[in-house]
Amino acid sequence: MKIILLGAPGAGKGTQSANISEKYNIPAIATGDILRAAIKNGTELGKAAKSYIDAGKLVPDDVVIGIIKEYLGSDACKNGFILDGFPRSIPQAEALDAMGVKIDVVLSIEVADEKIIERMSGRRVCPCGASYHVLYKAPAKEGVCDKCGQALYVRADDAAETVKSRLETFHAQTEPLKAFYAKKGNLVTVQGQEEVADTTRLVFEALRPYEA
Ligand code: AP5
């Protein structure tokens, strides 16, 4: 299955992408994670991306398109993949089309802006990639990752002002992708629920018709 996950920042794309990846045994490619790792490692890519991420703006299209080309060309993606956070603009979606990639389903997770702000303020992440929420997905021991035992931290771009800017960017540049994919006929929407498990159930139901 070749899946695109759409949704506002904090809609639960990363959370659901982990569940889908496990169920269907396909890799998740999260451009945000790739860019953050590049920043942490001080690479040229990281240096180019940092100021945009800190401001809650999109990293230039040519930079992320280059990343995606590299990942989709790898063997790991030959039986399917989940794109989490790509495409995020019409030019990125057009670039994906130009690569000849045929997407089976575009799943949009819908969550209201007010809810997003509440979720982001409670998110805690781990250097290993695991993500938690102080109320909705709390680790067994406060501040400690269940998977690897490292200390959890707040993502730099989860500061309230940056979240506001990320939401504005989403509405202006990413939300038009819903109409883009609706026109192609492969857009499916799921309402994000209060409980993670309830959203997961709806996501799996929505994907069932696309199973091979
Ligand atoms: P990225 O890392 O992709 O951030 P995002 O899209 O803003 O999404 P998030 O990772 O913040 O949230 P999510 O939807 O994955 O939600 P999560 O599952 O964590 O991108 C960061 C930046 O990189 C961008 O701003 C941009 O600058 C740049 N970038 C990335 N891709 C790019 C591209 N293609 N082009 C250009 N620039 C790009 O959930 C959030 C919280 O809510 C968690 O705490 C979770 O536990 C909790 N939660 C999840 N589901 C539920 C639920 N149902 N109920 C209650 N709580 C829930």
Give an overview in words.
This protein is α/β, with parallel strands linked by helices. Helix content is 47%, strand content 14%. It has helices at 13-24, 31-40, 44-54, 61-72, 90-98, 113-122, 160-174, 176-184, 196-207, and strands at residues 2-7, 28-30, 81-84, 105-110, 123-125, 131-133, 187-191. It has a five-stranded parallel beta sheet, sandwiched between helices. Strand 5 (123-125) and strand 6 (131-133) form a beta hairpin. Helix 1 (13-24) packs across helix 9. The longest helix has 15 residues, at 160-174. The mean pLDDT is 95.
Structure at a glance:
The protein is α/β, with parallel strands linked by helices and 212 residues long.
Name some characteristics of this structure.
single chain, 212 residues, alpha/beta, five-stranded parallel beta sheet, two-stranded antiparallel sheet, 9 helices
Compile the SSE list and pairings.
Blueprint: E1 2-7, H1 13-24, E2 28-30, H2 31-40, H3 44-54, H4 61-72, E3 81-84, H5 90-98, E4 105-110, H6 113-122, E5 123-125, E6 131-133, H7 160-174, H8 176-184, E7 187-191, H9 196-207
Parallel strand pairs: 1-3, 1-4, 2-3, 4-7
Antiparallel strand pairs: 5-6
The chain binds BIS(adenosine)-5'-pentaphosphate (AP5).
Question: For the largest beta sheet, what order do the strands appear in spatially?
Answer: 2-3-1-4-7
**Hetero groups:** BIS(adenosine)-5'-pentaphosphate
* Morphology call: globular
Indicate the proportion of strand residues.
5-15%
Helices and strands: which structural class?
A: alpha/beta
Give Rg in angstroms.
16 Å
Count of distinct strands: 7
Enumerate the spans where pLDDT stays under 50 for 5 or more consecutive residues: none
Give the H and E element order.
EHEHHHEHEHEEHHEH
What does the oligomeric state look like here? single chain
Tally of helical runs:
9
Average of per-residue pLDDT values: 95
Q: Helical amount among residues, as a percent range? A: 40-55%
Please summarize the sheet with the most strands.
5 strands, parallel
Cα separation of the termini? 7 Å
